[in-house]
Amino acid sequence: MIPSHNHRTSLETRRRQNGIPGDGELKESSADLVIRGLKEAGVSVVCALPESHLKPVYVKALEDPDFRYIPVTNEGEGTSIAAGVWLTGQKAVMIMENSGLRMATESLSRLGLTHGIPVLLLMSYRGDLGEPNWWGVPHGITMEPLLNALRIPYVVVRKDEDIVKAITNARRSADTSKYHTAVVFSGEVIEN
Q1: Does the predicted TM-score (pTM) go above 0.90?
Q2: Measured distance CA(188)–CA(157) in Å, rounded
Q3: Which of 16, 77, 101, 110 ranks highest by number of CB atoms within 10 Å?
Q4: Is residue 130 packed enough to be buried (19+ CB in 10 Å), middle (13-18) or exposed (0-12)?
């Protein structure tokens, strides 16, 4: 028997009542700050492969007339589209789960190391300390070593007050260095 939506909701309620971390998603207030940061950074195109942690950002970007929202089928495609946008003189972002970094590695290495075409990455931090899903743990184990191997500067944002500055600094660094940068979300900005 497939559990009904009410059954799932009651499981989520019991999980919260017992202090067990849930899957979570970015808080609405945090999502608003991400949108503000993207606007202040001059981003006009949002490439995205939706996942649950950053769901509020996808919804807000899709509904905001200041952004062209481009859903993609994989992270390599998304980073390549974001790079193409940069070549036109516009600013784009690729938003994804950190597991997508593995899929995007080839395109990111060619774009950044070979051609000097920067991509701004926004990612959720699956596998961070306290991860409630066994399948999320490998994402955390591989993300930071991959970012370091690709020499992508990154910041892990855990508090609302750091969101806007992290995004604008990452965009500025990408433009200056002609290389990728990443902002990764975890901690207090993710509701459980």
Answers
A1: no
A2: 9
A3: 101
A4: exposed
The SS3 assignment for 71 reads: strand
Asked whether the CA dihedral 168, 169, 172, 173 is positive or negative, the reply is negative
44-90: pLDDT as tens digits = 999 999 888 999 999 999 999 999 999 999 999 999 999 999 999 99
Query: 110 is written with which tokens?
Result: 């060619």
Contact between residue 143 and residue 183 where contact means Cβ atoms under 8 Å apart = no
Please give the structure tokens belonging to residue 132: 């409630």
Q: Any idea where the domains of the chain sit in the sequence?
A: 25-191
3-class DSSP assignment, residue 84: helix
- Output phi, psi for 103, to 5 deg: -65, -35
8 Å CB contact between 33 and 164: yes
* Residue showing tokens 């080839």: 106
Architecture of the domain delimited by 25-191? 3-Layer(aba) Sandwich (3.40)
Whether 29 contacts 164, CB under 8 Å = no
